[in-house]
Amino acid sequence: MKKSVFSAVSAVAMISASVAVAEPQAEVLHYWTSGGEAKSAAVLQKEFADNGGTWTDMPVAGGGGDAAMTALRARVLSGNAPTAVQLKGPAIQEWYEEGVLADISSVAEAEGWADVLPSSIAAHMKCEGTWCAAPVNVHRVDWIWANADVLEANGIEMPTSWDEFNAAAEKLQAAGVIPLAHGGQAWQDATVFEGVALGILGPDGFRKAFVDLDADTLTSDKMKAVFDQMRTMRGFVDENFPGRDWNLATAMVMNGEAAFQIMGDWAKGEFLAAGKVPGEDFLCASTPGDGFLYNVDSFAMFDVGGDDKKAGQELLAKLVVGKNFQKVFNLNKGSIPARTDVELDEFDSCAHLSAEDMKASSEGGSLLPSYAHGMALRGAQAGAITDVVTSHFNSDMSSDDAVQQLLTAVQNSM
Amino acid sequence: MSKWLEEHLPKVVLAPSFIAVLVFVYGFIIWTAWVSLTRSRLLPKYEIEGFIQYERLFAAPRWDVAMNNLFIFGTLFIVISMVLGLMLAILLDQNIRTEGAIRTIYLYPMALSMIVTGTAWKWILNPGLGLEATVQGWGLENFTFNWLVDPDKAIYTVVLAAIWQSSGFVMALFLAGLRSVDTEIIRAAQVDGIPTWRVYSAIIIPSMAPIFLSAFIVLAHLAIKSFDLVIALTGGGPGFATDLPATYMYAMAFSRGDIGQAASSAMVMMGVVFTIVVPYLYSELRAKND
C-alpha cells in the first residue's frame, strides 16, 4: 500500500514536471539506413525516448547522403527545417551561411565539450564561435588493411613507407596475388589518393594542399610524386576494378585473393561481420606516413520554433556527445568515439590504435580532415579535385599534366 | 447554360493540365535559366552575375568529356538503331510464319527499364564474370573483351546496351510504316518485274520518310536525356569516361551543391534538344499549312 502511494506520488510529480518543461521533440533527418548503421541509429532513438523525448524518424536512403541533402534542401526552402540533420564537415558551415542553424552553446558549455573533443574536430562543430553541431564518431580514413595469411606466406611485413609498399606489392604480384584490392569508383580513387598524399606531402603539405588549396603546393614536385605513386599503384590493381563496390574489394582481401586494401575503418565492419579477428586474420595499420585523416559524422541543429523542439534539440545534443551513446554507437559502427574520455575496453585492437593515433596526432597538429569524404573542402572544390584524381588514375595522363589540371580545376570550381 | 458549357467545356477540361504544363515546364525552364546566371551553390540565389557559370562549364574538362560522349553515343545509337531496326523490319515483312512471336521477342527489351538493361549488361560485359570469363573458360585463353573497364572504349558499351534496348522498338515503328505503304504500287512494280531490293530502295523506303523522322526524334531525345543506363552500366566510370551531360548535371546539383553550374549545364542540354526538335516542329507545321 505504502509503495503504491509512493509510486502514485512520483507519477504525479513526473506529470507536473513534464507540464512545467515542454516535452522534448526531435525530428531527425539522417541517412543511416543500412544494416549496422540503422542499428546504431536505433540506439540513439531508444536513449532519446528513455529520457522522455518524442523522436520523429526521417531516414532518407540513397546516394551516400545525396538524397537526404535533397530532402533537406526542400525542407529548408519551404521554411520547415527538421530539428536535427546528419551533416558533416564544411557542409555545416555552408548551411550556417544560409542562416538556418541554431546555437547549442548552452549544452556544449554545460557538458564541457571543449575539454573532451580534439580541438580540430571541435572546430567543425562551431559556427563563428558558437556551437551548432554535435559530433557522433570519428572514422579514420587512412587505413591499410591486409590479409595476415597472405602476408605471412610471402614473408611481408606491414609497409611503413610507400617504397616498402611498392616492393611488397611487386613481390606479391610475382607470387600471383593481387597486391591491392580496389574498387574503381571516384570516391575510392580519392580515398587512396589522399592516403598517398598524406604520406608523401606530410601533414603540413596535406593541409596546405587540401584545406588551404595553396596553388604552389598543388603544383609542387611532391604533388607530382603523389601522382607518380598513384600511377605505380594503378599497376597493382586487377583488371576488373572499375565500378567495383568497396565491400567487394574488402572481400577480396578477406578470401586471400588480394593482399591489401586502402579504405576507411568502415571496412573493419566487413571483416568483423565475416567473423575475422583483427591481428590474426586481418591486419590494420595506418597508411605509410604521419598524420590521421578523420571523417566525422555529426548532427547539425537547425533553427526551429517552439520550446518543445528546442528542448528536443538540447536533449539530443547532450545524448549524442554523452559517453554511453558514443561507446555503444561506435561499437556498432566500427568507428571510435569523438570524445577522448570514453573507456575503450570493449573496443578491438584497431580501434585502440585509432584512438591512440588520434590523441597523438591531435597533440602534434597532424589530425587532419579527409578531403575525399567531404571534411576538408566544400562539395565543388572536393569534387573538382576528385575529377582530376580519378581521370589521372583511369588514363595515361602524366603527373605534370595532372598537377596542372588540378590547379585549373580548383580555380574553376571557386 | 448548356450552350455555354458546350462551347467552353473543352477549354475547362484542358485548363488544369495547360496550367500545370505552363508552370512546371515553361515556368521552371525560366527559373533554371535565371539560376544559371547566378552564383547559386547549396541553395538557389537570385542575384544575376552574368555568364560566369557558362564560363566555368566550358572550362571544365569533365563537361568536354560529357559532350563528346553525347556526340559519340547519340550518333552511333541513332544510326545503328535505325539501320538495325529497318533491317529487322524488312526481314519480318517477308510474310514469315512466326512473325508474331518473333516481333514480340524483339520488342521485349523495350519493356525493361534502362536500369535493368544496364545492370544485366554490366554483368555480361564484366571481364571477370561475364562474356570474357565464359569464353576463356571454354579454353580460348586469348579471348579478351574488356571494353567495360577500358576508359577509351567504355562509352561503346553504353551504345551497345542502348541499341539492344531500343532497336526492337524502332523495328516495330518501321514495320508499321512498311505495312502502310500502298500495296497497289508494290504489286504494280512486281508485275513490271522489278527486283525486290529495288522495290524497297526506290519505292517503299522513300515513302516512309515521316517514319524515319519520328524514329529519329524519339531516339534523339532518348539519347540526350540518357541517364539511368549510364548510372546502372558504368556509374559514369572508369573515372568519368562515360559521363553524359545528364549525369554531369546530376553530380553538380545533388552531390556537389553547385546548383548554378547544374542549371547552366541543363540550359546547354536544352539548347541541344531545341536544335533537333525545332526544325522538326517547323517542318511539321509547314507541312500542315500547305
From TrEMBL, chain A:
Function noted in UniProt: Part of a binding-protein-dependent transport system for a sugar.
InterPro entries listed in its UniProt record: Bact_solute-bd_prot1 (IPR050490), SBP (IPR006059)
Keywords: Signal, Transport
Record bears the keyword Transport: yes
Protein name from the UniProt record: Probable sugar-binding periplasmic protein
A Pfam cross-reference name: SBP_bac_1
Source organism of the structure: Brevirhabdus pacifica
Any one GO cellular component localisation term in the record: periplasmic space
Organism superkingdom: Bacteria
Family of the protein in this entry: Belongs to the bacterial solute-binding protein 1 family.
Subcellular location: Periplasm
UniProtKB/TrEMBL annotation, chain B:
Membrane topology: Multi-pass membrane protein
Subcellular location: Cell membrane
GO process terms (BP): transmembrane transport
Entries under Gene3D superfamilies matching the protein: MetI-like (1.10.3720.10)
Primary location group: membrane
Key word Membrane present: yes
Top-rank taxon: Bacteria
Family matches, as InterPro entries: ABC_transporter_permease, MetI-like, MetI-like_sf
Keywords from the named record: Cell membrane, Membrane, Transmembrane, Transmembrane helix, Transport
Keyword Secreted: no
GO CC terms of this entry: plasma membrane
Membrane-spanning segments: 12-34, 70-92, 104-124, 154-178, 199-224, 263-282
Family per similarity comment: Belongs to the binding-protein-dependent transport system permease family.
Name of the protein: ABC transporter permease
Top-level taxonomy: Bacteria, Pseudomonadati, Pseudomonadota, Alphaproteobacteria, Rhodobacterales
